[in-house]
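Exercise: predict the fold of this chain.
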Amino acid sequence: KQEGLPFGVSVHASHAWTWYEPAQRSDKQGPLAGVPYDGKLSAAEGAGKWWNGLDPQALYAQDHPLSVGSLDDSAMGRYWDWGGGAYPPSRVYCDKFYNRVIDLIDTYDPDMVYFDDTALPLWPVSEVGLHIAAHLYNQSVQKHGQMQAVLFGKVLSAQQQKCMVWDIERGKSNLIEPLPWQTDTCIGSWHYDRRIYDNDGYKTATTVIRTLCDIVSKNGNLLLNIPLRGNGMPDEKERVVVESIGDWMRVNNDAIYGTRPWKVFGEGPASEATAPIHTQGFNEGKGLPFTAQDIRFTAKGNSLYAILMGWPDDKTIRIRSLPAETARAGRITMLGSGGPLAFSHTDQGLDVTLPDRAPCKDAYVLKIEGVLS
């Protein structure tokens, strides 16, 4: 907040009711076979123990019957929308979740709240998510005179997208969405995994930057997770990724910040290779990779930004979405480069002669000024 950045929090706790059910199991073999785990422990059993005075049920909330098929490790996904045989959460559990989230909002005053839920947490088995949303929005109006708080949820209907921001996990839309939306993804695993570090498994800055450009061209935003080590710091390989993204943004941020989608989001082979969204998202990396033939568009004022997803072998790029009969450019420059570029309008598109040298890496932005269609 001191740097003027919006402050956001994420809440994942509503699913603990079913996802912690393995705490009710026991080892199947070995010296402790059949000895129950601690999911069913009560406060009364803490006498003389290190956790004396603490209630294990405040952590596990497992003093309830197992959901249907709970012993199947793959069953957790079936309970996501509180269907699939999920044992209904108690009123006490729902109220405790409500109180904790309200306390989070009141204590830390977040600008953005991310729920790892379809629509709102505990919906449709409880209305506490609706009351939390109302509290967040009303508090924002009281503070700012207008509603500025942002609330994120997954698998939203068209109606729900009018009052929340649709979040797509590890995926993205394949078209320009009429309302703002968000991709949330990670350069590795959601939590720090040394194996990814050892095997050089992080997303590259190139992948992140081109993904960002594609998402913004479709009216989306990118929420990028950088998993931290136990000391709270990124490792040196992660720093390279983050710093490379920063290098690119210093040159090309004008094509990202404050922009809006154009009449089409882009052109090129990757535009035609769509991958459907699966439940919460999860279509990441399933389309064609970006090439120098792929272009993404953003717009701001009287400027159109054509973002080239690669550097072509020759010095000329043709933008087929700008044929002579539909658009006229007045001036074209490349962000981070020198003066105006030579260009010509044809029936097949707008041909632009690129600079002799690329001004950056990963993606390259043409700023087209003038009267646009």
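Check your answer against the key: DSSP finds seven helices and 14 strands in the chain.
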